[in-house]
Amino acid sequence: MKQLGQIVTFVIPRMEGISKAHLVAIVHATIYDMNLKSENNFLAELKKACTEWVKTTDEGKRLWQDSSQDLNIGDIAQQGDLEELSLLMDGVMDDSLSIEIYGGEPGDWMYDSLLVNQDEVTDEIYVD
To answer: pTM higher than 0.85 for the full model?
Structure first.
């Protein structure tokens, strides 16, 4: 019986300056090796697969050269078709790897931005 997979999601920020994330990579995959739920384990498996991909495929070799031998998650995301790479990842279901990049210049809305207009809330608001 084929084992059902679990979808995992990892958020990888690209930090610029002091604590300012300008870009974020969102990595999704369906795994059947539950050890890959750990970010560190998933990253180790991704590195292993990327290394093999660079060593054994024309597409991988080309991207390694195009990245000036500094292949990162952004390079992989821009590459597009991740089927060959996902096939090299043990514990990841075939063709389930996806990477999306989001970002731009940071605006006023930050993670810790207050979501209540304080001047409209009185000190008397409390839970009974």
So the answer is: no
